[in-house]
Amino acid sequence: MTMPGMLHVQVLRSPHAHARIVSIDTSAAEAMDGVEGVITCADVPGEDGFGVFVNDQPIMARDKARYVGEAVAAVAAENALIAKRALSAIKVDYQPLPAVFDPDEAMQPGAPVLHDYAPDNITKHIPIRVGDAEKGFAESDLVVEETYTTQPIEHAYLEPEAGLAYVDHDGVVTIVSPDQNITHHRHMLARIIAKPISKVRFIMSPVGGGFGGKEDMIYQGMLALLAMKTHRPVRLVFTREESIISTAKRHPSRTVLRMGLMRDGRIRALEMKMICDGGAYGLSTEGVMRKAAILAAGPYAIPNVKVDTYGIYTNNTPSGAFRSFGALQTAFATESHLDICAERLGLDPFEIRRINAMRDGALTHTKAKLTSVSLTHALNALEKASGWEAGVPNSRGNTRRDLGRDDIRPPCALGARFKVADKQEAAE
User: Fold this and answer.
1) 200 CB contacts (<8 Å, ≥6 apart)?
2) Which of 297, 323, 337, 424 is the one with CA 20 to 30 A from 188?
3) Count of structural domains within the chain
């Protein structure tokens, strides 16, 4: 998109994961030919801070930079090359601070603190308790505990973050961007630039891929400030490198999952502790932790449940929304764990799920009553469509229907669970 008289924006980003900003000198950049405006956090006229659940992220780093790639200043110039050259003329005096990159370490006493209001670096903790988990484990025939991890994931949309801003003839600050959350952003921006809501307009351009990654107001505030300062349209298009280094990723997680089962496959107790790296700012972390806790037990009827999900501040790139946020991390742990438990009990993986599947009228561990549950129908269709061969004898010559208490054992080879072309392939 272009507009007559449009300026091009480039952003100066922090090279430090954690550093106090002692001073910023933009005078040399402002004096360069072709440069029409330079902004820092000092140009924010209103209440600085945005976020989906907590307004803890400034438009540009204020007092401290908290991750590598955080915006510190922005330049609007006649073309992108001039703007990029102006960035090198901005002088920033940083005082490096100790940084923390592991969420478990971030919760330890004495760890570097990212935000004064969260001295333990906990962004959000969601606890859920149903029944008596320890009693359920004591009554179980088998208790299995494993740890599962997931990594940060880049959204990798076809179109990176981009936007165009201008102030129209009525003095309305207008932002055009592939924005997944325009109503929320409109209200936040009005507060940040100290204008009534009637003087702020967001136009959602074709998104070019979002998946949750464009829910956050990462750059729209900078565009608004530069449009107001220069009185000309301004445009910013992230390079792929900028998009990867500075915008939210799927929350990486570490989940300790403990499950107690009877020898017939019934789950008596589940305990899950999931710690997620929320990165330097809150963004969607609270929502991700809530959804993870809500879905922690999967679609299974479990009488005793203990769940704790934690989102933790670190000096990593912020984490945010990414399709089915919270569900991916917990479902990966729960479903992987069920496969391991099925193998330990000598049960077919489909059968252990049918035994524990919620049915119509089930009450979830968050007290939601389910009235139309299709899980067993889905399992039946999947088993048939996949050509699954149930009840195949295990390495000891027993089928799952023959197993008794003495057959609870460590996992055996999983190959016997799948259909094979012939006996020779099965032997291999």
Assistant:
1) 172, 173, 175, 186, 189, 190, 193, 224
2) 323
3) 1
